[in-house]
Amino acid sequence: MQTNTPPRNTIRLTRRGRLVTLVAGAVAAGTAVVVPLLLLAGDRDQARPATLVIPEGWRANQVYDAVDKALRLPPGSTRKSLGKAALRLPGEAEGNPEGYLFPATYPIPEGATPESLLRTMVDTANDKYGLAPVTAGAQRNAMNLHQAVTVASIVQAEADTKADMGKIARVILNRLARGMPLQMDSTVSYALEHDPGQTGQGSGQVQSPYNSYQRMGLPPTPIDNPGADAMRAALNPTPGDWLYFVTVRPGDTRFTADYDEHLRNVAEFHAVHQSAAPAQPDGGVPWSSPSPVPAQPSGG
Question: Where in the sequence does UniProt note compositional bias of the Pro residues kind (predicted)?
Answer without folding.
Answer: 289-300
